[in-house]
Amino acid sequence: MESKTVVADIADELARRVVGGEYAPGDLMLSVRQVADEFDVNRATAQLVLGRLEAMGIVAAQRARGFVICDLRDGAGADVGGYVFRLSQAPDEVFEMFRDAVDMERAIVLESLITYATLDEQPDLTAIENDIDELESITQLNDPDYPAMFEKELGIIRHVLSALHQPFRKAVLNSIGMMILSLPEALAAYYPDAPDVRVLVWRAFVAARKTEAGPTQSQLALFEDLVNMYHQQVIERFAELVLGHEVDLPLYGAAATA
Q1: Helices 91-117 and 78-87, axial angle in degrees (round to 10)
Q2: Average pLDDT over the chain, rounded to whole?
Q3: Are 123 and 209 in contact (CB under 8 A)?
Q4: 254 in helix, strand or coil?
Q5: What residues have CB less than 8 Å from 56, skipping those under 6 apart?
Q6: Closest by alpha carbon to 258, among 218, 225, 214?
Q7: How many other CB atoms are found less than 10 A from the CB of residue 71?
Q8: Class of residue 21 by CB neighbours under 10 A (exposed 0-12, middle 13-18, buried 19+)
Q9: pLDDT of 1 higher than 60
Q10: Judging by beta carbons within 10 Å of its beta carbon (0-12, 13-18, 19+), is residue 250 exposed, middle or buried?
Q11: Which of 202, 204, 219, 245 has the fewest CB atoms nearer than 10 Å to its CB?
């Protein structure tokens, strides 16, 4: 029996062909025999490869036909979307997927934080403050670990979503996080310089939440503007890194109607 790594490697190669357009939606994927012959593996391993692709939603088994290529752009879930994002080599396509992911991440972050900030009862901020302390420690390194920073910021939002009893949104956020962590250019777009600024924003949010009356409307409006502006800049930076040029983007929030 071939190793799980061999199965995963062959599945990734076939998935790359789907993502790259070599196989179109509705086309037949290679048969068990063809996979075995092309990659020099036994048929049991080839069956595992096709089963892996089916489990990922890359192909669907059809009686009397074989494995048919699925339309990933129209029907893929978050996990498959992350898989496609990681394998895609077309810059325009990568950019569009990244922009969609950032749009969704921004919406989850902004809505959950504003809801959390306006809860009637004072929430327990201990876990969030601990994460912010750890985030600050990472930013003070000579060579900051950006994946660790991103994970720590995701952890803060996870605490908020748990407090709000929103497990579905937390699952979506986790899938988006995996997509972003899979591409170095994505992390570079999130942390271009001065990573300690992120710490200052989080501490300001906690300080406003800690006040007896909670944050004022002007504080919430400022925080919303900061979140929107930050994510706008993330998308613009990613465009420069992946496309090599600036792009015209619709503005978020108040800036869009100014």
Answers
A1: 140
A2: 85
A3: yes
A4: helix
A5: 11, 15, 79, 80, 83
A6: 225
A7: 10
A8: exposed
A9: no
A10: exposed
A11: 245
Residue 160, pLDDT score: 95
CA atoms within 13 A on the CB side of 36: 11
Question: CA-to-CA distance for 105 and 113, rounded, in angstroms?
Answer: 12
Rounded CA separation 103/109 (Å): 10
Q: What is the mean pLDDT of residues 135-155?
A: 91
In 3D space, the residue among 17, 20, 180 whose CA is nearest the CA of residue 100 turns out to be: 180
pLDDT digits (tens, 9 = 90+) for 180-222: 887 888 889 998 877 788 899 999 999 989 988 888 899 889 8
pLDDT band for position 83 (50/70/90)?
A: low
Three-state secondary-structure class, residue 61: strand
Task: Tally helices (H) and strands (E) across the chain.
Answer: 13, 2
How far is the C-alpha of 163 from the C-alpha of 131, rounded, in Å? 15
Return d(Cα 53, Cα 39) in angstroms, integer: 16
In the chain, the DSSP E strands lie at 59-62, 66-69
Other beta carbons within 10 angstroms of residue 179's beta carbon come to: 25
Token couple for 181: 């962590």
For 149-170, the pLDDT digits (tens) are 999 999 999 999 999 999 989 9
Percent of the chain with pLDDT over 70: 88
pTM: 0.70
Is the distance from CB of 206 to CB of 200 less than 8 angstroms? no
Stated as kind and residue range, the H or E segment containing 200 is helix 196-210
The tokens of 228 are what?
A: 């929107």
Strand partners, 255: none
Q: How many CB atoms lie under 10 A from the CB of residue 70?
A: 21
